[in-house]
Structures are given as structure tokens and as C-alpha cells.
Amino acid sequence: MKKTINKNTKKTNTKKTKSLRKVILWGLAILYSAILILLLIMDVSVIYQHRQSVFRNWDSRNTAYTDAVATVIEEVNRNMYATYAYDQNYNELKTAVGVDSYVDAYELTEKLKGYINETADLTGYVLYYDGFERRDYKFASNYTGVKLQEEIKEITELLINGQEVRNSWYFVHGNLDSYAICVYKEVGVALCEFISLGQIKENFRKYPENENVTPFFIYNGNVLGLEEEKEAFEPYVDQILSGDFKISEDGYYISGYQVNDTDFYVCTAIKVNRFVFFSEYGVILVLITMVAIATVIILYVKMKNQLLRPLRNLTDQMNQMSLGSTIPFDSGSTLEELQQVSDTLNSMLLRLHEQEKRTYEETIERQKSQMQYLSMQLKPHFYLNGLKALNAVAINGDTEKIQDIVLQLSEHLRGKLHVEQELVTLESEKNYTNNYISLQKNITDRSIVVDWKIQEGIKEWWVPNLCIQTFAENSVKYAKLGNIMSELHIAISVTELNTEDGEYLDISISDNGAGYSEELLSELNDGIKDGAAGIGIDNLMRRCRLLYDDRAQFVFYNDGGAVSELIIPWKKNGEGREEV
Question: In 3-state terms, what secondary structure has residue 453?
């Protein structure tokens, strides 16, 4: 006996040693993978830093371009303010007319010509005086073209004649070019200094380092330029305004910066060569990493066949198990540990499936019993009163009315006894409710009027049995009208609701009684009281919870009488729309 125990112990130790060797083997592989990850991190870091350096270079180029444009605008601002605030000739032109205005205008234009020569990229000016009847203009010597000059005159003419023009900058695009125009307008005199944005673009392109750079402008959230420019760069406006500079899908790095105190953005689109993001050191490091990856792949193939693939098979089968699959597990592995896991899971799956089957059958049986109990709650007093009324009619010898009452009682009792029918069509529920109202009229001789409003095309909806009759019965029994001879009005409205969560049916029943008491309203709107098996409305609430879980809604309030509202999701017995 002792020898047998020693032999078994030896076998057990051998199995454990074999497993530990494999753990050590894969541990070395993990260590190598960690080194590989470190190399990859270094690759990413080097490439990222070089990439950021390239972006910084591009951004600095754009910033310098923006500063250059801003400098021109600032110089124009200084010139305009000096003229507006301190120039005597400009101030005299506000009131001067005739020959006097010529003299002042001449001296002022001579000074403005000097501004054009001193300020880089300033294209020219237009001066209006003598009550805006006369104008003088001057263009920079490098700005040629009669059509361009005429376009500027037309644009400034429109600005000066505009009623809402104030002393400010205006950025506009004509048929031939885009312009930045500074306008100072007073009574009888106005000065417009303008910059050709197209000329600024041409000057920018003269530098060799800007060969692959396309400049463009944005004003008030729109690209300022020709139609082809708008079509090309409009998709990037929001990106630029938010400062989210990145490479576009068509291979351009788009960036832009705002000129101070304006809604004007100077932007550039740089054609990107993907190889610019790789430095020599980065390329060497990538090659080393690729060699390391090849080595790891060889190790991975061996690991995959012995461990990874069997584990993946087990994982897939467990996922299928969570979806209800009962297919036995098979790891497909020769490893003893994984095969043992597979056998254990098969045993658990078998027991779980048997337990689920028993639980499901018990749940169905419990719900069926509860539904039958709720639906079988008959009201003996109602039927006794019916029999008494039938006896009274029989004494009077009204056989036709006796037949009506007997048929109505029979139909009413038949509906109460259909405990196995949880859902009925809306049309069927309507007929059952009308039968109940007619029966009440014959039993009590009470005047009851029912007004049905059912939306077209929804009579085939399936609704809980007695869902409308319960509220109608509640109105007949409890609606207080003050006078027993008063006519009871019951309004029943049924409409379909289309929501994001699907299709719902809104059933509303109201009467012209005194309405619910505040205490009863509070109790009804609090919902079902667990542990208390009620009747009537509480009964209906419990059945709806069994049918729809928490998707059915009940609302109770007063509006010229008691109003009861039930909202239920789509549900039917059969083919058609998606079931709840």
C-alpha cells in the first residue's frame, strides 16, 4: 500500500514539473515581448517628436505669415487713425466745398501717396470729399490692371453708400480678387485704404520654401476667395476656427490664425509628403524593431498552436453558452490543464441547462396561475343584481328585454371566464365594454352615454383583456353626478404613439363625475402595492406588469371628472410587427 502511494505521488510531481517548464518557457516569451514593446514605444516616441517638430515648423511658418499680414493691417490702422484724428486737411474736408475742397484734397492725397510707398503690401486708397461728390484714388505701382482697379472703385462705392458702414475693416471678395478695406467715414468725407489679398498671396509664393504651401483667408466663418478655393477649403473652416490643426484626407496640413481684433483668419494648406515624418535615426530604429517583430512572430506561432488557439476556442464556446448554446465544449488542445477545464465546463453546462429548464417551466406555470387568479375575480353582487333585474323584468312580462339581459349577462360572463386569453384585439375589447354598458343600462335603467374615438387603422392592436372595461366599470360605479337622474358621459380615446422606443397605444377613459379624491389619486399614482392582491384597477396594473414589465404606464388625474390613462407598448399574438 505504501509503495502505491509513493508511485502516485511521483506521477503527480512529474505533471506539475512539466507544467512549470511551460510556464517558464512562456515567461521568457513574455519578457521578450516586453522588450519589443519598449522598442515600439521608442519608435513611436522618436517619430512623434519628429512629427511634432515638423508641425511646429509649419505652424511657425503660418504664424510668421499671419504676423506679416497683421503688421500691414496695423500699419494701415496707424495711418488711418493719424489721418482721421490729426490731419488738418482731412478735418477741413468735412466742411469744405468747391475750390477749397480741391486744395485740401490735393495736400491730403500727397501725404497718402507717401503712405503707399512706406507701407509694404498697401495696395492703394480712395478718398471721397465735397459731400461724397468727388473722389481721388491712388494705386501702388505694382498693382496693375484696369479691371482690378475698377473693381476696387465699385466696391468702395458700395461701402461708402451703405447706411450701416462704420469706421472699421471690411473683408470682401469681388469678381477678380479679395480685399481688406479700412473705412473711415465722416459727414461729407470718407477715406478707404485697401490691401489686395491676392497680391499678398503672390508675394508669399515668391519664397522657395513656400512652394508646396497654398495660402487662403477666412472671414466671418467663410472662405474668402474664388469658387474653387471655397470648394476646396470650406470643409476645414470649423477645424481651423476651433484650432484643431491636422492633416486632411487629401494630404494637406491645414492651419490658420486670427488677426488681432478681427474675424479675419490667415490660413495655409501645406501639401504633406508622408516621408517627412521619418528621421534617419527613426528609420534605423524601425528596422531594428521589425527584426525583433519577426522573432516574436516565430515564438507566437508556437504559442498559438499549443495555448492561444485552444483558449480562444474555449472563450468562443463560453460566449455561445451565454447566448443559450448547449454545444459541448472542446478545447482542441493536448494540454492536460485545458482539457480538464473543458470537461469541467461541459459538466457545468449540463447542470445549468437543466436548472434553466426547470426555472423557466416554474416561472411560466407561476405566471399562468397568477393570470388565471387575477382574471377569475368575479363580482357576485353584480350578477345577483343582474338576476334581480331579470326577475323584475320577468314579472313585467317584457320577454324581449329578458332576452337582451340574458344574452348580455352571458357575453359578460364569457369574457370573465376566458382566463387563458391574456390579450384581445382592441375591437374585441370595445365590443365587450359596450356589452357591459348596455347591460348596466338594462339592469339599472341609468342613462349612460359612451363616446368612442379610435384612431384609424389600429383596431387590430392587441391589448390586455378587460383593460378598457375595468375603467368604464369604475366610472359607472363611482362617478358622482349629484343627481341620480343625471346622464353619465364616458369618453374613451385610443391613439397610436410613435416614439424612439417603438410603437405605443395611448388609452384614455374619462367621465363627467366628481373625479378622484386626492387620497385615491395619490394611492393610484403610487402604483402597485406589493403583497396586496387588489381588484379592479390594481388587478389590471398587476396583469400589465406581467405582460410588459415596466414599459406599461398608468396616469390618473382630474379634468372635469376622473381621467384614467393607460399607455402600453406594441404586443400581439402572431406574425407581424416586432413583439415586446
Answer: strand
- CA 319 vs. chain centroid, Å, equals 30
pTM listed for this prediction: 0.42
Q: What is the pLDDT of residues 338-390, one digit of tens each?
A: 677 777 777 777 777 777 777 776 566 556 545 554 454 545 555 555 665 56
Q: Where are the alpha helices (DSSP H) in 304-335?
A: 309-322
Which residues are CB-neighbours of 330 under 8 A, at least 6 positions away?
Answer: 313, 317, 342
Q: At what angle do helices 426-444 and 380-396 cross, to 10 degrees?
A: 50
155-181 tens-digit pLDDT: 888 888 876 667 788 888 888 888 888
Counting every residue, how long is the chain? 580
Cβ count within 10 A of residue 394? 13
Strand boundaries in 387-434, DSSP class E:
423-425
The neighbour count for residue 555, using CB atoms within 10 Å, is 13
Which DSSP state fits 528? -
What is the DSSP code (8-state) at residue 255? E
Residue found under cell 454545444: 327
What are the Cα distances from residue 122, in Å, to 85, 159, 198, 532?
20, 19, 12, 89
Q: Which three cell numbers stand for residue 176?
A: 477678380
Q: How far is CA 458 from CA 348, 493, 506, 564, in A?
A: 48, 12, 11, 20
Other beta carbons less than 10 A from residue 459's beta carbon:
14
- Identify the DSSP state of 306: I
